[in-house]
Design brief:
Layout (H helix, E strand, L loop, with lengths): L10 E5 L4 H12 L3 E6 L2 H12 L8 E5 L5 H15 L4 E4 L14 H29 L2 E6 L12 H22 L3 E8 L5 H14 L3 H11 L8 H12 L10 E4 L8
């Protein structure tokens, strides 16, 4: 017996949708019959991703590529207004755009922290604020924030990202009750080490900090994961599909870790 997600005919925004986890989620939604707006900064790469999605089996649903800088309020407005103009409503928001530089604390400039907060923290908050008026009016909405394990387990070489993620966990849980009265569910997925280009860049940055090879960093990472393997973007996508479906109709304000058992604590 297969699970029926009942997502066909719905619409979604996926930020950071041109690569990695965002691209995997956009493809998964599209396969389920969802019309998807993918947003990212690089227009060439964005269009390549959109074309790859269009080649997948579909149910008459569409893909919209929107080039925008989500570290700016104007970029958020562009994504939301273009999606509403094309699709008429926004049922699902997947907040995924955001990156932060790894580095030794004393080597990090203030701007490194500001850049991480503007793109991911404020970007996520602004997008939630921008999509919920439509969802409140229709009394239906599903939001997933892709956050990250560093919000719960700080790493000294990843403080810009860790502080951003911790704040987003607070925001996700804090806003959940307010949105629940409008039948809008918001949840968080926190991936651990994941096999993406972004993961490769972090490995390179950490290798440079420690003066070791990228291969050594990756080997140490895998060794630290109890299941002995990195997560695949498709695993994150499968969980996102569940959370935005009616199968998860009573789940809101939750964080689900996908880290192979790495995060300690209860």
């Amino acid at each position: 017996m297969s699970l029926e997600l009942s997502l066909a005919g719905k619409t979604a925004i996926v930020t950071g949708g041109s690569a990695g986890i965002g691209f995997a989620i956009a493809k998964a939604l599209y396969r389920e019959g969802v019309s998807v707006a993918i947003a990212a900064r690089n227009p060439e790469r964005l269009e390549q991703a959109a074309q790859a999605i269009r080649e997948l089996p579909n149910q008459g649903n569409q893909v919209l590529a929107i080039s925008a800088d989500l570290s700016q309020a104007e970029g958020v407005d562009t994504v939301v207004s273009k999606t509403l103009a094309a699709f008429g409503q926004i049922d699902i928001l997947i907040n995924n755009a955001g990156s932060a530089q790894a580095g030794a604390f004393l080597d990090l400039e203030d701007q490194t922290f500001v850049d991480a907060w503007n793109l991911k923290l404020l970007g996520y908050i602004r997008l939630v604020k921008a999509v919920i008026p439509d969802q409140i009016q229709r009394r239906d909405g599903r939001i997933v924030n892709i956050i990250g394990g560093a919000g719960r387990t700080p790493r000294p070489s990843f403080l810009p990202g860790g502080t951003t993620n911790a704040a987003l966990l607070n925001f996700t849980r804090g806003i959940a009750k307010e949105l629940a009265q409008h039948n809008i569910r918001i949840n968080a997925i926190s991936p651990g080490a994941t096999a993406t280009e972004r993961g490769d860049r972090l490995a390179e940055q950490n290798a440079q900090i420690r003066g070791v090879s990228v291969a050594e960093i990756k080997a140490e990472t895998v060794k630290s994961i109890p299941l002995g393997k990195m997560a695949q973007p498709e695993e994150i996508a499968n969980l996102a599909l569940f959370l935005v479906s009616d199968l998860a109709a009573s789940i809101t304000g939750a964080e689900i870790l996908v880290d192979g058992g790495t995060t300690p604590g209860v």
